[in-house]
What we know:
Distance between the termini: 69 Å
Shape: globular
Number of domains: 1
Largest sheet: 3 strands, mixed
Strand order of the largest sheet: 3-5-4
Order of helices and strands: HEEHHHHHEEEHHHHHHHHHH
Number of helices: 16
Strand content: under 5%
Amino acid sequence: MLLYKIIQAINVAFKVISVILIICVVAGYVILKVNWRIYYTDTETALYQAIPTSTPQPTVAPTQIIIQSNIKPLTDNTIIVSTTDNVSDAFVNYFDKTMNLVETNWTGNGTDPLTLSLSNYSSIDLKSYSNWVDQYTNTTTIPNSLDNIYNSTTAKTGVISIIQSAESDFIKYLTAVGINSNYINEIQGNTLVNIPANIQLIQNTGSTYIESHADYVKDTSGNVINNDYSKLNLIVYANDIYNKAVMLKNSGIIPSNAYSNTGDLDVIARDMATRYTTYRLMTTVLQRAVDTVNAPDKYKTSIDSYLEALKSLSQVNLNFTLSWGGVVYNQVNNQALTLRRQDDFVGIDVLSSAYALSQAQKNVLEYKLFGKYQPLAQTLVADVTNFNNKYPQFPILSMKQKILADFISLIDFKNIYKPDLISINNQISLLPQIVADYSYYNIKEKNTFWDYLK
């Protein structure tokens, strides 16, 4: 009888152990699927450690490639522009100050209110936030004087033609770099198979700013056709092009001998900004094509094919990633951070090639659009890291709603600064993109990127 009970107990124990092992295996599989990389923490920030791989060296340096096209070169070897700009940013100031205040008094419990008050911000701070909103609106609202080159029917025809030309330039660039031809075939044969119908140019949006983006091919009801997420459309906004045209004009890289009057300069800047916008979107297209090519057949049209793909550009250069408040948030936001940084640098590389910009022009462009903001990136990275260290279970992007509910919404509606605080606070949801834009690729990262595509 005793022996029987012992045997029975052993059988039960084996069953329990078997169940535990199965759970462990499944959990381990899920964790590996979500993370891809070994998670570790150091004194600076929580990062995903990229696994080093041996890759071939590029046969052509991408910075030396000149695309043969009908674009008039804008080469200027004599450009001298200061690279010692004193940069400040009202959003970074707001976010840094607000996070420091939050970490001083808040418990970290989502139901406990924040103790923020308008008195925490000086009149100088509030005025700078207001100026930031005004400047943001001015650089995203097309002035009436430029409607003819951005919002007219003629402008639409011309801009779409430039987008199509830029798509072709991008493919030429990829071919010249020498990436795997399967990726190029995928772009032309599937991802953007509906050229030129895949281009949607949206005009006359007033002060409403929406960044151009690649989106899935959808029917009139907004549903993805045949649940096929491997195909994309390019959604381009005229005021996004204008915003980038302003940046390009202000960068000083367009040589004075390229135009005879301000009107000519505006057209050159628009055309250049249209191409730059398209090159960035085509980088997103490339990212999707790489996922599709490398995913098993049954996952090629899946929305999360990158999770199944043997190679994905979302896995490249993961040496710069942050902790955002848990595994899922880390995965989503670090992927956005990684892919956005790729959009930024590839866009500049192809633009420089298309216009035959000199290395001096390219250096200035990279500095003016991205490089000068690196000190601001360091501030944001420190804020994200410090917040995560103190409140590891609270996603920092959720602070946008928390601050709005516990602080800004309680401000008297007659207060002139309330709308500005709402606007600048909304930028918190864009933190991964902002950090990406302020943290430009270095040469080593660029080489790693192109090597990965061989």
